[in-house]
Amino acid sequence: MKRFQNSQIKVGAYSLIEALVASSVLLIGISAAASLSLSMVTQEEINERSVQVFNYLDNAARLYQLGVDASDIPGLLPPEPLVTSLTFTPGTETVSGIGTVPVTTIEMTYRPSGATSGNSSSTLDWVGGDKDTTRTESVVVLRTETHLDGPLPRVNYVKNNP
Question: Which of 72, 83, 85, 133 could form a Cys-Cys staple with 109, CB 3.0–4.6 A?
C-alpha cells in the first residue's frame, strides 16, 4: 500500500480565508450599489415633489392673472399636503418707459421631503430626506387689463359654501 505524503497532496479548493475575503469584497460592492440606488430614488422623489408644488404655484399665479381674488385662490386649488403656506403680497415695480406698475409677489413654502406630509397615497409616502427641510419659491405676477369680467362659477360656490 502506498502512503501519501504531505508534499504530494494538491489542494484544489479555496482556503477559508480566501472565501471570507472574496465574500466581504462582494458584500462591500452590493452595499455600495444599494446605497447609490437609495440616494438616486430619494433625489427622484424630491424632484417629483418639487414639480408638484411648482405646478401648484403656477396655477395660483394663473388664477391671479385671470382676476380671481387672492383670498379665494387657496380654496380653488386642490389641497396639496406638501405646500405649507401660500401668501400674496401686493407691491409696485418700476418699468422703464412705462412707470410704476402694480404687481403681486406670490410666495409659496413647501416641504420637498414627504416624510411628514401625511398623504395617504402610497406613491407619495417616501420617508427619505430630512423631514424638517422647507424651501420657499416666489413669483412676481402682473395683472393686465385682459382678465375675467366676472368671477368664475366655482369662486362663487366656494364663497357661498365655505
Answer: 85
**From edge to edge, which strands make up the β-sheet containing 99-110?**
83-95, 99-110, 135-142
7 in any annotated domain: no
pLDDT of 34-55, one tens digit each? Answer: 888 888 887 888 888 889 999 9
Could you give the CA distance from residue 81 to residue 87 in angstroms, rounded to a whole number? 16
Contact 115, 81 (CB under 8 A): no
Strand-pairing partners, residue 29, are none
> Does the pTM of the predicted model rise above 0.85?
no
The span from the CA of 85 to the CA of 109, in Å, is 5
Q: Tell whether 106 is covered by a domain.
A: yes
